[in-house]
Amino acid sequence: MNILESVLNLITKLFSVLGATVGALPCGGYFDEPEIPAEITELHK
């Protein structure tokens, strides 16, 4: 029973660290946004 408890604690800690890492930088992907080509921005002209 002690082995099962330690495995569950390990999995719980792994997911908590993973959740904290993902939640730390929610807007990290927006800084690498590509530029929009001029052909797309000038469609209404």
What features would you describe in this structure?
The protein is built from two helices and no strands. With 45 residues, the chain is an all-alpha fold. The chain is 60% helix and 0% strand. It starts with a helix and ends with a helix. The protein has helices at residues 2-24, 38-41. The longest helix has 23 residues, at 2-24.
Quick structural summary:
The protein is an all-alpha fold and 45 residues long. The chain has two helices and no strands. The N and C termini lie far apart (71 Å).
Layout of strands and helices, then pairs:
Layout: H1 2-24, H2 38-41
Structural features:
45 residues; rod-shaped; mainly alpha
Strand content: under 5%
Measured distance between first and last alpha carbons = 71 Å
**Which residues form runs of ≥5 with pLDDT under 50?**
none
Helix content: 55-70%
- Average pLDDT, to the nearest integer? 78
| Backbone structural class | mainly alpha
> Element order, helices and strands?
HH
- What is the CA-atom radius of gyration, in angstroms? 22 Å
Q: Give a short account of the largest sheet.
A: none
Q: Give the total of beta strands.
A: 0
The general outline is rod-shaped
- Counted by DSSP, the helix tally is 2
